[in-house]
């Protein structure tokens, strides 16, 4: 999580990051404050509405089936970060079959 936070911060791009309340402690100290001009960190968002917005150019996802289908149906490129079960298979399809994303190693 710290590496992802570092990447978002140094990219100097606008971002929306959904971080569960139970995971907030894993964020680097002062990350929210230091990125508040370009970043928005929330505990929940209406994912389908966000993915459908014209400003979205990339979706970093764990590749759960629902998230994958939503991004795929809207043509949003994905950075796949599978965690367990079917997510690795879904990420493989995102990269190798549908060719709409990459998979993090």
From TrEMBL:
Transmembrane segments: none
Keywords for the protein's UniProt record, in alphabetical order: Glycosyltransferase, Transferase
InterPro entries given in the database record: UDP_glucos_trans, UDP_glycos_trans_CS
Listed CDD domains: GT1_Gtf-like (cd03784)
Gene3D superfamilies (UniProt xref): Glycogen Phosphorylase B
GO molecular function ontology, one term from the record: glycosyltransferase activity
Pfam families recorded: UDPGT
The organism's place on the tree of life at top rank: Eukaryota
Family: Belongs to the UDP-glycosyltransferase family.
Protein name: UDP-glycosyltransferase 74E2
The organism of origin for this protein: Forsythia ovata
């Amino acid at each position: 999580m710290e590496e992802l936070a570092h990447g978002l911060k140094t990219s100097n791009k606008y971002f929306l990051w959904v971080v569960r309340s139970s995971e907030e402690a894993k964020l680097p100290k002062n990350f929210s404050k230091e990125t508040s001009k370009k970043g928005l960190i929330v505990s929940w968002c209406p994912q389908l509405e966000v993915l459908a917005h014209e400003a979205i150019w990339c979706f970093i996802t764990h590749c759960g089936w629902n998230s994958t289908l939503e991004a795929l149906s809207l043509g949003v490129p994905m950075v796949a970060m599978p965690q367990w079960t079917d997510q690795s298979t879904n990420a493989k399809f995102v990269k190798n079959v549908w060719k709409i994303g990459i998979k993090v190693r």
